[in-house]
Amino acid sequence: MQDENYAREIGALEHLSGRFPEFWMLAVSAVAWLAVAARTGRHIHYDGVAANWWHWMLMVAAMMLPLQIHGVRLTAERSLWARRHRAILGFLLGYLSVWALAGAPLSWAAIVLAIPSRVGWMREPRLGSWWRRHG
Amino acid sequence: MATLIRKDAWKLSAISTWEPTLLWYAKAVGEMSTRPAMDPSSWRFQGGVHGYNKNTDPFANTGALPKQAVQKKFWNKCQHGTWFFLPWHRMYLGFFEQIVRAAVVKLGGPADWTLPYWNYSDSSNANARTLPPAFREQRLPDSSPNPLFEIQGVNILRAPGINAGNAALIPPDDVRLSGCLAETFFSPDTDITVGDLGLGGPATGPNHDAQVFGQKSVENAPHNAIHVDVGGEWTQGAETLRGWMINPDTAALDPIFWLHHANIDRLWSVWNGISASNADPTGAVNVGGRKISWATSVKFAFNNAAGGAVTMTPSQVIDTKTGPFAYDYDVTSSPLAAHAKAAVAASERRTMRPQPRSEMVGASSRKLTLTGSAQTTTFTIQEPSGPAKARGKAAKAPLLGKTYLHIENVVSKESHTTYEVYVNLPEEPDAAAYQEHYAGAMHLFGVRHASRRSEQHAGNGLNFPLDITELAEALRAKNAWDDKYVRVTFVPRGPGGEANQAIPEHDPIKIGRVSLYRA
Questions:
Q1: CA-CA distance, A50 to B267, in Å (whole number)?
Q2: Sequence-ordered list of residues with C-beta below 8 angstroms from that of B377, at least 6 positions apart, any chain
Q3: Among B87, B115, B108, CA closest to B9
Q4: CA–CA gap between residue A129 and residue A131 (Å, rounded)
Q5: If you count residue pairs, one on A and one on B, with CB atoms under 8 Å apart, how many are there?
Q6: What integer is the mean pLDDT of B104-115?
Q7: Burial of B139 per CB tally in 10 Å (0-12, 13-18, 19+)
Q8: Is the peptide bond before B508 cis (omega within 30 degrees of 0)?
Q9: How far apart (Å, rounded) are the C-alpha atoms in residues A31 and B38?
Q10: Which end of chain B has fewer CB atoms within 10 angstroms, the N or the C?
Q11: How far is CA B478 from CA A60, B433, B475, B482, B515, in A?
């Protein structure tokens, strides 16, 4: 009975957000999955460091964020109630910034490794197929 | 197989210091300690199952260790700061008892030998808080060295007063059972870490290094307190010595470890017997997004008396009598009088209690460093604005629920000094003030592991959620509580277990933050 009163007083969303403060992080992750899924099947153009990096961050958001549920719950538990989502945001931005930094050189490397598709002589069939096999 | 009975070591000692159960234990320990560390039934192998570190191994230069793969599978497996603490140690003790029994039989002793237990909480025994004499004698009756006192020529390190039989080293508060046995649930049904965490501790995955000790968990007290008190920390010349019991990597090498844990295991049975609702966890808990069932999700590996590898889940050791080890204790009734008549409402019959989610209402902004003198931190607190406020409104009462003081991220590279925690202690406290403002003690068993960056929790240290609901109410009643700010004082415990203003300087113990929670 007391629990019912409590749930009514606090509201369903607040109750949910108290127990699963990671809900919006999972929503961000789900959107990132949709964005990644929308891109698959299409021909991917390695057309710029920024675009590659953006794709990298989408993958990170889709795959790595859900692994942080424990950290997010701990952050929420250890913050003032009114500030807990701000604290979670800070925690996640810190976490993502490490991946963002790691992604920068890789986004560049992806272009270097994709050179054959854009440099004329490398598109020569035999050389090109050698690169595709060994490159 | 018939059910064998584990007996009270002090009652056996009352018959004689070398009552056969104790004498055969001593002889078997002697026999096991002659076996090479690679043998799973050796004293050193069994100690390594709990924890091993070459730097603190008193036998580091005597013989080869098990292969890396074997160590990885069976060593450093003790479970702490988790709801697996009780079942893991029950399994550990079960296999150990089988191994000792086989050694006893080999030496010509009884085939029904059982591990005795050390009941330090027995209020009918004035000596309860000292070691049974068999652990303090230097010689066996045949005048050979006593393996309960020295192993392979190495003296078992214990706090000096412990071997002298000084009961003051273990203050009565450390062995009080009114906390753990009064718990009405085993673990919370969520992965909360601030709040009441039950008799059994927080719901976690497998957890070797502790992170959180629920105040009323049997692991916090008497378990951790006894480890720290018996092990002890003292200086000899320029050197700081630590007893084996204070360190998880050497604790199980001290034969008293096993009697201590037999008692902890017994307290679990006592708690089960208090009420039908004092049952072990059944459902699964969402731990950081993973569903973990206490009873069946995690398998733990051991070696049996025949040296074979075995795995077990907690579900197999819930009932000691019908389980694979088939034992019971001579006494499993609760020593707390109030329990005799305690009737539990049907609505409360739940094995995992949904704990009210608490919200932080204030926290200190600076780190605190303890080096031997009393330290105080003061911080402001706010009105609850989340679940605690809603719960108060729903109940039509301004302050319904619980108040917790949370001591966070306690790290220490060396020192295990016990500090007592006081709330709103006056500037010049008298003896009565110490009693009236006492919130609890920090027993730092395992703190060095918890402070290492390379370990499971990256050196984040230990956390102590202290339930100060009743204390806050008592302080409010005598106008010593303020809803705007709180003052928390850490006072070192003196060598005789008393609250002291200052003790000799020790290596720093750092407290990351102190915070207040309402639920």
A1: 62
A2: B364, B366, B368, B487, B488, B514
A3: B115
A4: 5
A5: 65
A6: 98
A7: exposed
A8: no
A9: 54
A10: N
A11: 56, 12, 5, 11, 23
What letters, b where the CB count within 10 A reaches 16 and e where it falls short, cover A21-52? bbeebbeebeebbeeeeeeeeeeeebeebeeb
Domains of chain B: 78-97+119-348 (no CATH), 356-518 (2.60.120)
Query: CB distance A81–B194 less than 8 Å?
Result: no
Question: With contact defined as beta carbons under 8 Å apart, do B82 and B201 qualify?
Answer: yes
Any chain A CB within 8 A of the CB of B266? no
Q: How many CB atoms lie within 10 A of CB A16?
A: 12
Residue type for position B222:
P
B238 Cβ contact list (under 8 Å, min separation 6): none
Distances (CA, A) of B71 to B49, B208, B254, B392, B500: 8, 14, 20, 52, 43
Residue B435 zone, left/alpha/beta (φ > 0; ψ -120 to 50; rest): alpha
Please name the residue that has the structure tokens 């009734």.
Answer: B333
pLDDT at B478 over 70: yes
Which residue ranges make up each domain of chain A? 2-134
The position carrying tokens 């976690």 is B204
User: Which of B287, B360, B408 lies closest to A79 in CB terms?
Assistant: B360
Contacts of B382 in chain A (CB under 8 A): 80
Q: What is the ipTM of this complex?
A: 0.76
Rounded mean pLDDT of B370-386?
Answer: 94
| Arithmetic mean of pLDDT over chain B | 93
pLDDT per position as a tens digit, A45-98: 656 888 889 989 999 999 999 999 999 999 999 999 989 999 999 999 999 999
Is the Cβ pair A5, B395 closer than 8 Å? Answer: yes
The CA distance from B301 to B312, in Å, is: 7
The neighbour count for residue B264, using CB atoms within 10 Å, is 21
DSSP B154-206: EEPP--HHHHTT-GGGS-GGGG--TTTTT---SEESS---SS--TTT----SS
Within an 8 Å CB–CB cutoff, is residue B519 touching chain A?
A: no
First to last CA, chain B: 48
